[in-house]
Amino acid sequence: MKGVKKQNLPTKICPTCERPFTWRKKWEKEWENVKYCSERCRRQK
């Protein structure tokens, strides 16, 4: 995702809080498996 503007990054909707969240560098290798925007939402499933 080098050279991509912030507004052009991929986004997903969190199933717990139903808010959109954006791609992050730490999720680079596992973006396909990321479902929740935060650890808190993941625990609340």
Low-confidence stretches: none
Average pLDDT, to the nearest integer?
93
The proportion of strand residues reads 5-15%
Q: Percent helix among the residues?
A: 10-25%
Termini separation: 29 Å
* SSE order: EEH
Tally of extended strands? 2
CA radius of gyration: 11 Å
**How many individual helices?**
1
Count of discrete structural domains: 1
Strands side by side in the biggest sheet: 1-2
What structural class should be given to the helix and strand makeup? alpha+beta
Main beta-sheet strand count, sense and barrel state: 2 strands, antiparallel
Query: What is the overall shape?
Result: globular
Pfam families: DUF2256
InterPro entries: UCP037205
Protein name: DUF2256 domain-containing protein
Brief summary:
The protein has 45 residues and is of the alpha+beta class.
Describe the protein's architecture and organization.
Pfam families: DUF2256. This is DUF2256 domain-containing protein. InterPro entries: UCP037205. It comes from Winogradskyella aquimaris. The chain has one domain. It is 13% helix and 13% strand. It is built from one helix and two strands. The protein has one helix at residues 39-44; strands at 11-13, 20-22. Strands 1-2 form a two-stranded antiparallel ribbon. Strand 1 (11-13) and strand 2 form a beta hairpin. It is globular. The N and C termini lie far apart (29 Å). The model has no long low-confidence stretch (mean pLDDT 93).
